[in-house]
Design goal:
Blueprint: E1 2-8, E2 17-22, E3 25-32, H1 46-58, H2 65-82, E4 95-103, E5 107-113, E6 117-122, E7 127-129, H3 138-147, H4 152-162, E8 183-188, E9 192-198, H5 216-239, E10 256-262
Antiparallel strand pairs: 1-10, 2-3, 3-4, 4-5, 5-8, 6-7, 6-9, 9-10
Helix pairs in contact: 1-2, 3-4
Length: about 260
Amino acid sequence: MKVEHILEQGSGAQNEDYLIMDNNIFGVFDGATSLTGACFEEGKSGGCMASSIAGQVFLRNHHPLVRLGAEANDSIRARMERSQIDLSRRCGLWSTSAAVVRLGDGEIEWFQTGDSQVVFVDRDGGYKVAARREDHDYPTLSMIRERGRSHPEVQRLVETIRQGMNRDYGVLNGEREAERFFRTGTEPTCNIKTVLLFTDGLDVPCPAPKKYKDFSCLVSMASELGLEGLRDHVRRQEAADPDIERYPRFKKHDDIAAIAIHF
């Protein structure tokens, strides 16, 4: 077995992504920037707090992944309460997505919530997204494409979409409703060549947003170039579009957390 990994800050003030690798458990977490802009322990944002708390809970590796997901969610809530966060202000909740796998005897247990991804690549080059879901950022990215990143209606839509946490899409943010959006399962290892775990900072830039992301290009490039080669391609595409005119996105470069497990 060979493992590649990347954890890299984007163009934001902090790296809100988090990555875990320990024995048979691997995971990536994408903290969401708090819309209040507040900072907490050691100057960390709410997104940094959520992703690191969740990652540390999964590292305990002592329960089924779905139970660890619930424990991570409860831990985020407990830390927010200790920090006296107003839990009724939903846009200020610490939140993170998660994609985690645990390698077992002949099978891979997986857990997913939010927009971090688990993708299984088979030996014939095909791939399977563990939890295929509609991209909750699709409406906002479509508006950015039409009106530009700095348009005031874009920020209003960002806030509206954020209110959809654990109503329309899942995140770990301390809310009890989060568990309804947990996706989990097992996959036999017999035909799997590679398991990819990644946050959306590794998505290949696309001029036209799609409701359901197509990962064909990402999977192909990860296979041909490796994670670092794929990362370099993504960063070059973004750097060539500094004003966010060709590729709709929220900032010039997003944080990246990614793992490739090759069998």
